[in-house]
Structure formats: structure tokens, C-alpha cells
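Quick one:
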Amino acid sequence: MAPDVACIRHREPFLLFSGKSTMTLSTFALTLAIGLAGAIGALVRYLLGRFVAERAGTQIPLGTLLINISGAFLIGLFFSLAGQRVISSAVQVTLATGFLGGYTTFSTMSWESMQLIRGGSLRASFIYIGSTVFLGLLAAAFGLTLGWWL
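Output:
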């Protein structure tokens, strides 16, 4: 049989589903850290989104917008800090994949956009989508720049 692609690309094989190898202890610990960070990110997203939604009286879902823009800033910051070796690659992947994977939400943004359209607010939906993408890119660039400056 041909070797699994994961064996070729990684020094520590992560072949959990193939049955060809076992997961190493360090890979298991990293996987667990990513999962826990993702759970924390999801809880923070829920609480922050709810907090903003209860206080904002706008048609555009400002909670999700704030979450996605702040997440874009943070991922830029984490990647630049990892690139400078201020944080390790394990910390970077735990924060970026784990925490921010649970914290940011493309699916909620998509659903909220569709709900605006279904409710007859096509303009608000386009403003929401456009501002999420544009401000998210600006925030990521700012995070990268700030991280390199630190």
C-alpha cells in the first residue's frame, strides 16, 4: 500500500483514522489543547455576541461583525508573533485554529445575511457582508503589522 500523505508531510504521524500508526503524546496534547481552546472561543463568541445584541439597536448584527473583525485582527497578530518566534508554533496553532476557530463564525455571518435578505433588507445585508470582508482584511493587516512592530 502507498504511504499515507500525513506520514510524508509530518515528522510525527497523525494517522488517527487510518489505523496505520498511533498518535504521539505530543500530538495528542496539541489536539486536546486545540479542542479546549475552540470550546473557550465558542463560549466567548456566544457571550460577546449576546452582550452586544442586547445593547445594539441596529438591523445589522453588530455582535457577529465585532467578533469576526476582532478575530481577523487576532489571527494576523498571532501569525506575525509566531513568525518572529515570540510565540511557539504550538501556541499559534492552538490560538489560531482552536480559539479563533471557535470564536469567529463565517456560518453565522452567512445565516444572518440571508435572514436580512429574507426580511427584505437587501441593502443592510450587502453592507454587513461588505463591511465584514473589508474591515476584516484591514484588521488582519493591522494585526500583522502590529505583531511585526512589537
